[in-house]
């Protein structure tokens, strides 16, 4: 593969230099392992503060698939299922990892990656009240992503409604925040970590896609889930022996708001590309204010751009165009964005 | 619940009297356990003969859910999935039993319970050739039911095409024959056990819904699956200690064609009801020549009939009518059918 | 294998004639499936009465391995383990069925199949209080068999002590009673079903080894375990569609004390053999008052007897003798016992 | 916890400075994710060279527990078990992670962490040839660690014998090399990576305990295991999105022999402590030439040392002494060793 400019994902580089510096600085300090070190303690305290809840448990796990599968299997009895949008990451992009823990995913149709409280309510009625319900896996947890797979956002009222219906039916609410920061600083976003904590039983704040080398911070409010969470992390291989690496990175990300600053940069870079795409008349598969763009792109343009840029093919749209994903990140440079924008405009001008 | 005449399923009674007689007759004979007895050996031999293949392995398992989960988990490595119609029994009616063995079910849209070779081919291409396929559970087995959940049948050519596409892609073909007999003797059925054996890697012949107290006979042609199948049956709790009970029943069912005779009776009883439903102008959710009928019934009629008969509500069709399942079996009496038919006709006449 | 007289197990025949009669009598009665029928209800009520507790849940499951794995996986979160004697049936004779549900078995050394409250207490301390306990599967349930694999019995005080230590540490107590009846009527047994119910969170009463064709009756006192137990039975394939078969058999077994009568017969037959073995000077691997005998038998005698009788080889004892298992049951005839006793005596006289 | 000098493990610091430098240097280079980058390719090629086999597959996984569970579950059908020494890491220190993938661990008694070819041979005979083998989980893989949990080493002839008996019985041989380097450069070690590759079906080279931030390199020779290994890594959450971090570190470790140099340093540091312990008359639980020492230490000495040094309590030895673990690593300084040695000698002199 030749060297192209990456817009394929938000994990094409290492970590933000501030994190790297701190890792270098602390490299020879001795600590105990498995997350029982002062750095993890500090990071957890900062996150508790931001969540407005000193009682939540905070754990750091190596990656997103591990965090999803650990969080879900920790909550469910054998016959219980997790409910997810049909395009939820756990259903489509994690190689059956949830099923490998023994649990079914009940999928709901989604609009641009989102599901609604009403859908959950109806699903619950169908599963619990049927005479035949002994033959159905039983819903016990709802999984959503924020922002979604398509970069869209839940509004405060929508999330509250989902939390309420979950509470009503005894369902745990779990929010996958692998890209949480990009969402929280996006235009139109109307809630913060405190509100998210109020709504969720468990959620996580992604690090690996937002400036860290790797790592996700799980926040657990529900005490039933919190009990013995560490041995479950260990059992699934998610307990880093040098756990300090996670504590150090999350402390840096959250101590002075670096996390949100980096997200704002990424969204801004995405916006420059978005405006350009609109100028040249492109439509979008989903309207999104975050760092992921889903233009419906003429195949000829996609091919032309692919000589220089690495973009992600999502799916065919019609005979001559496809849905393409363009991702920016904390690491995206203005120079690269300018280049891409320039090439889009000149190619389109040529074609016109 | 008051005593109603059962048309709710094909397992509302015990076993056909001939099987009961044989169980009584052999009751005090001593045998070794776990299916290593002369009765199981005899039954296996009769079934091998009917399959036209002396090399197939035949095992007897207590019930259908166990047979499905054992057959599937015996075939798959951790990341592999089974492909099934979206309304396949393993996906909708077995409480997540397949996922509990660690495997994802990849569902395909189905027409009246059936899927096609083309669908399998396209699904395979999508899953294997994608750049992202490391993130997808990998299809390795195809599960279909014959007859399907809606009583419909695969034609010989359709089954052959499915078997061919499976072979082409290295997918195992598994046919759930919980109601196999009802299908094989139905009008329009164009293949026998020999052809089924040629097409499948593994399939089973249902006993519990076709005259036995319980029990399914698994036929395994593929030697990779056949290896060490017994310890897997045992591990999942499917190895009956008094295995002879299964051998005795299947010997009786298959020695002189009783199995097919009973299925013919059930289909005939269903046909009487079908003709009646057509006469009164009812439409069907699915056209089926077997023992399960799916009329789209006015709610008023369904309610009226429910006073006397136990039928199964499937789902709402429109504001005033629903899909209802009526099942006959080897045990359905002409008297009960006459009564039902009479009540349908008189109720409809009254309504008209 | 030639036809020998069976003393190899307690499941070499069908069912006691009274059960068979009732199955024949009810064969054509129509009932709803999955254990929701009047026979299961009746059997459950009789068992509740005998347990002295109207609040316990009673479920009927096809076989012992299924009952064990369902009961255990219903109780445990992913990182939790079940504690068992090293020779417990779930550890040695069920093909890894518990591990297949995702859980580790923590084994304790056992004396003649039994473990003590002290052992459980020490194990718990070791597992919970260690600094390293995040790396250990966590004990949450204790599994014992009564009678044990070696036919030995817990005394009332021993069981009470185990129940107390379980309560102290929040461990569920589960008693596998596959041969419960043989134990409860044995000489030296000092507790009944009421006391067992007081001590246990969950236990089961075996049918398949004590006069039924198959089937175990699970009694659940702990409400946490009881919740949603039926879908878990279904998920693992243990929910018999014609569930009535279990209800009918257990009603017959328990309505008028047949169950205990049959057990007394088996124990009496075993005692005749035991006395004979003692007369000829044989020692025993374990002293047991129930239907299983474990003589340390000279290989020459074992070989001689094996021409006529099917006994079970357990393990080598020394160069010239082995531990052999001799099982009687409800079906063992005085005639066969007389024959065996005669042959033991004459062979030994000859050897002397 | 006050700040003590760490001898508790070989993962108390970050990474060797050369690795850190390279991570800093490459931080902003853009690569594709999931291990499909030039750094991983380079590292894999260097390792293939050292293994003397260009056909082996090399994968990089985040941590040891993940590597063990992925490697084992990738090899086994549902009823199959892995055989391990009773003190093997997978059995004692990974929270039931193997059982959580559905598989039983068959344990063998071990001498100082090691098992023998003879033990494996006998175990196999017992499991496969028994009449009752349908009731046993079936051995299919042998897991050993080199060096073992107690720092001891297999000799070339012992490993060859184990490999031969595995081949004879169709068992996969898997060597957990979490501390492989420390073993390979130890006094008395008589084989290299080439020989290890010849013997094993699959093994891994630990990074996290030998100079890297984290990471293990899995080497797969057996083509059956190699097939589709990447989706299994992904399914279990072991596929790092920024996989390059592993490639960069392993390239540095192996390009110029740094890995073995660091191991030699650790062993040398351990030797200084070992000689001191011998001088003061201490005995050892296990004789080991590697970086882990297991002195049987008077409790008074252990308590005294614990004021300044973090050592690991293993288990009580007798009333007044315990088995203690002292670990050195690539990061252990001569200064700290000198301090420890001085304190041991002065405390012992005082006590004498």
Q: Which residues of chain A form runs of ≥5 with pLDDT under 50?
A: none
The counted number of beta strands of chain A is: 14
Q: How many domains make up the 3D coordinates of chain A?
A: 2
Q: State the fourth-level CATH superfamily of the largest domain in chain A.
A: Type I PLP-dependent aspartate aminotransferase-like (Major domain)
The overall pLDDT average of chain A reads 96
Quaternary state reads homotetramer
Helical residue percent of chain A? 40-55%
Distance between the termini of chain A: 31 Å
Instruction: State the strand order across the main sheet of chain A.
Output: 2-8-7-6-5-3-4
Provide the CATH architecture of the largest domain in chain A. 3-Layer(aba) Sandwich
Largest sheet properties of chain A = 7 strands, mixed
Q: Tally the helices of chain A.
A: 14
Q: Greatest contact pair?
A: A-D, 53 and 54 residues
Order of helices and strands of chain A: EHHEHEHEHEHEHHEEHHHHEEEHEEEH
The coarse silhouette of chain A is globular
The percent range for strand residues of chain A is: 15-25%
Fill in the CATH topology of the largest domain in chain A: Aspartate Aminotransferase, domain 2
Report the radius of gyration of chain A as a whole number of Å: 21 Å
- SS class of chain A: alpha/beta
CATH class of the largest domain in chain A: Alpha Beta
Could you please describe the fold and organization of this structure?
4 copies of one chain form a homotetramer. Chain A is of the alpha/beta class and 352 residues long. The first copy, chain A, has 2 domains: 5-11 and 260-351, Aspartate Aminotransferase, domain 1 (Alpha-Beta Complex); 17-255, Type I PLP-dependent aspartate aminotransferase-like (Major domain) (Aspartate Aminotransferase, domain 2, 3-Layer(aba) Sandwich), CATH 3.40.640. The first copy, chain A, has 14 helices and 14 strands. Chain A has helices spanning 17-25, 38-51, 64-73, 89-92, 117-129, 156-169, 180-184, 193-199, 223-226, 229-235, 244-255, 258-279, 299-306, 334-351, and strands at 5-6, 57-61, 80-85, 105-108, 138-145, 172-177, 202-206, 216-220, 283-284, 292-293, 295-298, 309-310, 312-318, 321-327. The first copy, chain A, has a 7-stranded mixed β-sheet with strand order 2-8-7-6-5-3-4, sandwiched between helices. In chain A, strands 9, 10, 11, 13 and 14 form a 5-stranded antiparallel β-sheet that branches. In chain A, α5 runs parallel beside α6 (156-169). The longest helix of chain A has 22 residues, at 258-279. Chain A is globular, with a radius of gyration of 21 Å. The two termini of chain A are 31 Å apart. Chains A and D meet through β1, α1, α3 and α10 of A and β1, α1, α3 and α11 of D.
